[in-house]
Design goal:
- Residues 661-693 form the NOTCH1 EGF-like calcium-binding domain.
- InterPro entries: EGF_Ca-bd_CS, Haem_peroxidase_animal, Haem_peroxidase_sf, Haem_peroxidase_sf_animal, NOTCH1_EGF-like.
- Keywords: Disulfide bond, Heme, Iron, Metal-binding, Signal.
- One of its GO terms (cellular component) is extracellular space.
- With 700 residues, this protein is mainly alpha-helical.
- Helix content is 40%, strand content 5%.
- The protein has a two-stranded antiparallel sheet.
- α13 crosses α14.
- The protein binds protoporphyrin IX containing FE (HEM).
- Protoporphyrin IX containing FE is lined by residues 12, 15, 169, 172-173, 176, 180-182, 329, 415, 419-420, 422-423, 426, 448, 452, 504, 507, 511.
- Protoporphyrin IX containing FE binds at residues 12, 15, 169, 172-173, 176, 180-182, 329, 415, 419-420, 422-423, 426, 448, 452, 504, 507, 511.
Length: 700
């Protein structure tokens, strides 16, 4: 920023920023990983022998390395407390949800794997690292070629979903914010040669640039699109099991509350006795709360001086994803704001029901209710639309209580492929609607890329209500073989003054290879689905000869196809929006998430009646809502008033406790010290500076 420029990759870096607890884990893991690689190379140079991990290092050597790099500390089993707060509520970090294996499903732990990774060198080199390496006798195509030939769709050339609203797409992303965040390598230069990953076309970890084929419209302008490998994690490199694993740094419930103690305290309003979350001080949405600014956490004078010299003063919102990620997209800002308000509304209501509860109990109970609401909305309302009712009943049996043997960790294939399927349902245009559900002449529909990292559009262009009305009344994009991913995402992702925009399709494919995801045949096998032996069987699966021809021309054999692109190519199951492979992978993950959550059972039954529409009614000035917010509303006349009995309230009297009961939890030492000072984080300055640039870019 001080050099007066930033690149699309800088925005991607903001998107993947971490907190300090994650950074210490990554530092240790990078050190360990690089040291082992050096030892491996030295041994190879002397002996010309590729040794496996047990031959390379004795277990004592490995223990020494783990200690020296700091990985032993990072991998240490946490001690689970047995006080009132810890017994009753999920920890912020997810530690101790499973009492026997306290790290299961916690933040800052590696993704689980359902299949062993397929790295090109067995340890950590991505598939396609060596462009000449063959798989089933074919070399892998450059991911950008797949994006151009299979995914690219002109914005105008899309079909609309006849029955589902764009809120469903936003909910997908919202839930994703809750479940997965993979940090990228913190270093921007390659380990061995010191090359700058933003400019180099050579492959040297963490640089894994995406090559631009000669036939690409970008050829001549760009030879490679920068790509940083995901950071390694400590676990997975023990003496027993040595290959590169990737970290998930978030945990269920984190988009509102954060997934580290440090961030969660930063988001609380510790001077309130009602257990509230902090809200924005300088601005409000006609009296309703906005998310606080990251800006508020740093020295105003320094920032104002620097930013004023850059032109417009702009700010990032601050929420549970680290360092301003909530700002990625207008829809996400609206949902983050909505749930901040819902937390505060619940905490105040709970105070009325149980005036004897202290601030920590109010905070934790409101948090627990919001967690349950998300489970009900996701498992009961959203998943049937995605899987189709029939498949849903088959794959997601009725909830049968907590099972401590189930590992609720997010899997690598879920984050790097399966849950990215919704990228092909994103509409290229963002519409905001006024109170009469009409477009406002001052805020015409805008291309998607103008809504990315643009929080000022909320504050200065009417608040979150127009955004929410827009997503409620706009349809989702329909996924179809010739209409995969809109050019807003393949050609204009994170457009900035410097460098060419990124391509989300290419990033998804490259990420799958970076994480060592096996080709699609292995996943079909895992799911008990047939693997096509020839072109006609493959055409039978995809139901589209043209698409099969394109994929086989690129990959040579169906076995090699990157799992994400094949999975999104399968035709949707009846009534659903995904094909059989995605249905299997998503259902498997969502089942594990709920069955392995010790805190799920009691809350789910109490919060059945709540809907997204009710939450919108209770926290915005929107007075007309759909009965099911995920269903597309064709005409505003179909909307119901918030007073309609079918837009059911959550009855909080179920939470009433006799006021003779002592509030044990608030008698403990409070987690939230009064007058807590927010921490001064360098990320907040970077984020604000970038916003000044993006804004000036959007507004010319
Ligand atoms: C405006 C729309 C969206 C944009 C601009 C966007 C952008 C991105 C970007 C840039 C990444 C990182 C890519 C990489 O380097 O690997 C990503 C990852 C991801 N996105 Fe999206 N996305 C959008 C919508 C969605 C939706 C609707 C979903 C629904 C589920 C979703 C799910 C995911 C998942 C699961 C990841 C992996 C996250 C991680 O592990 O860090 N995204 N997205």
């Amino acid at each position: 920023i001080s050099e007066g420029s930033f690149h699309p990759t800088d925005l991607l870096a903001v998107f993947k920023q971490t907190t300090s607890s994650t950074r210490s884990h990554i530092r240790a893991a990078v050190l360990l990983y690089n040291t082992i690689e050096i030892i491996r190379e030295m041994v190879y140079t002397h002996t010309m022998a590729e040794l496996n991990h047990t031959e390379l290092l004795s277990s004592e050597d490995m223990e020494t390395l783990l200690d020296a790099t700091g990985c032993s500390t990072e991998m240490k089993r946490p001690v689970c407390k047995s006080d009132c707060l810890s017994e009753r509520y999920r920890t912020i970090t997810g530690h101790c949800n499973n009492r026997q294996t306290p790290l299961l499903g916690a933040a800052n732990t590696p993704y689980a794997r359902w299949l062993p990774p397929e790295y090109e060198d067995l340890h950590g080199a991505p598939r396609g690292w060596d462009p000449q390496h063959s798989y089933h006798n074919f070399i892998l195509p450059p991911v950008r070629a797949v994006s151009q030939e299979v995914l690219y769709t002109q914005n105008e050339n899309i079909s609309l979903d006849v029955s589902l609203s764009h809120l469903l797409v936003e909910w997908w992303q919202w839930i994703d914010y809750d479940l997965t965040l993979t940090p990228q390598s913190p270093s921007t230069t390659s380990f061995k040669m010191g090359a700058d990953c933003t400019h180099t076309c050579s492959r040297d970890t963490p640089c894994f640039p995406i090559w631009i084929p000669l036939s690409d419209p970008r050829a001549g302008l760009q030879s490679c699109m920068p790509f940083f490998r995901s950071a390694p994690s400590c676990v997975g490199q023990s003496a027993m099991w040595y290959h590169r694993e990737q970290l998930n740094i978030v945990v269920y419930g984190s988009m509102v509350y954060g997934s580290s103690e440090e961030l969660s305290l930063n988001l609380r309003n510790c001077s309130s006795h009602l257990g509230l979350l902090s809200h924005n001080q300088p601005h409000s949405d006609q009296g309703l709360a906005y998310l606080p600014y990251l800006q508020e956490t740093i020295s105003q004078s320094m920032t104002r001086k620097t930013l004023t010299s850059m032109g417009n003063l702009t700010f990032c919102f601050h929420a549970g994803r680290p360092q301003g990620v909530a700002n990625e997209h207008l829809g996400m800002i609206a949902l983050h704001t909505l749930f901040l308000r819902e937390h505060n509304r619940l905490a105040e209501e709970l105070h009325r029901v149980n005036p004897h509860w202290g601030p920590d109990t109010l905070y934790q109970e409101a948090r627990k209710i919001l967690g349950a609401v998300h489970q009900v909305l996701t498992w009961d309302h959203y998943l049937p639309h995605v899987l189709g009712n029939k498949e849903y009943s088959k794959l997601i049996p009725p909830y049968d209580g907590y099972d401590p043997k189930v590992d609720p960790s997010i899997t690598n294939v879920f984050s790097a492929a399966a849950f990215r399927f919704a990228h092909v349902t994103v509409h290229p245009v963002v519409s905001r609607l006024g109170p009469g559900h009409q477009l406002h002449p001052d805020n015409p529909p805008m291309p998607l890329h103008h809504s990315l990292f643009a929080p000022w559009r909320v504050v200065e262009e009417g608040g979150i209500d127009p955004v929410l009305r827009g997503v409620l009344l706009s349809p989702a994009k329909l996924q179809a073989p010739e209409q995969m991913m809109v050019e807003e995402l393949t050609e204009r992702l994170f457009q900035a003054q410097e460098g060419l925009p990124l391509d989300l399709g290419a990033l998804n494919l490259q990420r799958g290879r970076d994480h060592g995801l096996p080709g699609y045949g292995a996943w079909r096998e895992l799911c008990g689905l047939p693997i096509p032996a020839n072109k006609s069987e493959f055409a039978g699966i995809l139901g589209n000869v043209g698409l099969v021809r394109k994929l086989l021309a690129l990959y040579g054999t169906a076995q090699n196809i990157d799992v994400w692109v094949e999975a999104i190519s399968e035709p949707a199951l009846p009534g659903g929006r995904v094909g059989p492979l995605l249905a299997c992978l998503l259902a498997k993950q969502f089942r594990a998430l709920i069955d392995g959550d010790r805190c799920a059972e009691e809350q789910i039954t109490k919060t059945q009646s709540l809907s997204v529409s009710r939450i919108i009614c209770d926290n915005t000035r929107i007075r007309l809502v759909p009965l099911d917010a995920f269903i597309r509303t064709l005409h505003a006349e179909q909307l119901l008033p918030c007073t309609h009995p079918n837009v059911t309230h959550l009855n909080l009297s179920a939470w009433k406790e006799p006021d003779t009961d002592i509030d044990e939890c608030s008698n403990q030492l409070s987690a939230c010290p009064v007058n807590l000072q927010c921490s001064n984080t360098p990320g907040s300055f970077i984020c604000s500076g970038m916003h000044a640039y993006i804004r000036s870019f959007h507004t010319g």
